Amino acid sequence: TTATPASxxxxxxxxxxxGYVPVYTTAVVEQPWSSYTPSDHEVWATLFARQxxxxxxxxxxxxxxxxxxxxxxxxxxxxxxxLNAVLRKTTGWELIGVEGLLPELTFFEHLANRRxxxxxxxxxxxxxxxxxxxxxxxxxxxxxxxLMNPVFADYMEAYGRGGVKAHGIGPEALVNxxxxxxxxVEFGLIKQDDGLRIYGSGIVSSKxxxxxxxxxxxxxxxxxDLERIMRTRYRIDTYQKTYFVIDSYEQLMEATxxxxxxxxxxxxxxxxxxxxxxxxSDVVFNKGTGEGWLNDGDV
Length: 299
Ligand code: HBI
Ligand code: FE
Known about the structure:
This protein has a domain at 26-185 and 199-207 and 245-274: Orthogonal Bundle (Phenylalanine Hydroxylase). Helix 4 (104-112) links the parallel strand 4 (94-98) and strand 5 (115-119). The chain is of the alpha/beta class. It contains twelve helices and ten strands. Fe (iii) ion binds at residues 134, 138, 143, 186, 201-202.
């Protein structure tokens, strides 16, 4: 049965033996801007102001610069049409409204065509600090600014094309590619002259992890290595045990140039790595203490 449980978010949930799971809908929806309530705009304004404050000195220069260049309004939910006017002429990307998580192939096809799916609804006040699926704040505040950067914009399109190909190869290839997305687009760090900085959307949209990823002694911080990342399991329900550090967005783009098929081949014969393990071949910025880590739950 599809039932929408207590969760105030609009995404349909299916009742399964694992409880309520989000039902993937591929529908593209117009942003219902006039139906946002004052409370919705208040949630945006609160999260925006809080993250702006936390990200000074923590987010990458490129992220902060592009966030300003986007002209996002801090006091109310931005209009996709307004952001698209800027985005289209800068890198040819455009935002489309969706109900929430899309089936992977649908998601990849959008990225391959420079369309970024943005959830149209925003979390409720009682969900300020955590919610299980991406909402408008995560997508808009977290993902959109770097789409203004031409090199990162190319990377995201290349990722989408890679995803469509991986989908054709099979589920293991998809898992490898999803790990790459997870440890770069969602939870990536970048090295700047003045230290490590955040560019991953999952981090920049979370107050706690914005601080934890740079300042806690618990996690590993390791130099970017595409194949190593594709082999590494990750966490969905806690802070990451390991953050990977790129030297530049160009490094990301370069890493997607080769055909991944031989890499998938190689990886299909190897075991994956636990999220918290450090490998001998790693460039280690720091080896975490592992404090507070849970032993189960790596995916
Ligand atoms: N759907 N709307 C949306 N947004 C995402 O970030 C997203 C998705 N579906 C799948 C997905 N991300 C990840 O599995 C990617 O690694 C493909
Ligand atoms: Fe995301």
